[in-house]
Design a protein that fits this description.
Elements: H1 2-16, H2 25-33, E1 59-69, E2 72-81, E3 87-98, H3 100-117, E4 123-127, H4 130-141
Domain RNase H type-1: 55-144
Pfam family, one: RVT_3
Protein name: Ribonuclease H
Length: 144
């Protein structure tokens, strides 16, 4: 009787849960043994992006930041390229514990200060963080 109740409860848990699976192989094996239906996450949307060279006299800086966890070990980096697409400079920095957005923001700040110190004034900054880009666009409209 108790075993039947446990199996019934496990089977019903599928209908209650709303999340998707992100389990280890060991956990997936246990779920399969218990005949629990799995809800895998949807495949990510893949968007093709084409890199464009900057105008003559400009440097393009592509930056990115990432965190392993929320927050977790994080880092950021960037690559400066000239108008012909050739590599000019780059950086990669590890930071201790941070959120992914903090790493993205640190990359922007570092890139701007780095360029300023080297006397590079014409920058085209590119990031994959839509939120960060929208913040930078909005704040640049209010600068006199």
């Amino acid at each position: 009787m108790a075993i039947t109740l446990v199996w019934h409860t496990i089977g019903e848990s599928y209908n209650v849960g709303s999340g998707t699976i992100r389990n280890s192989l060991k956990e997936l094996g246990i779920l399969k043994c218990l005949n629990i239906k799995l809800k895998p996450s949807k495949a990510p949307k893949i968007v093709e992006v084409f890199w464009q060279v900057p105008l003559v006299g400009w440097l393009k800086i592509n930056i990115d930041g990432a965190a392993y966890g929320c927050p977790g070990l994080a880092g950021y980096g960037g690559i400066f390229r000239i108008s012909r697409g050739f590599f000019k400079r780059g950086f990669a920095i590890s930071i201790s514990k941070a959120y992914a957005f903090e790493a993205e923001l640190a990359a922007v700040i570092h890139a701007i200060f780095y360029a300023w110190d080297l006397g590079w004034k014409n920058l085209w900054l590119e990031s994959d963080s839509a939120y960060l880009v929208s913040i930078l666009k909005f704040s640049s409209l209010s600068i006199p």
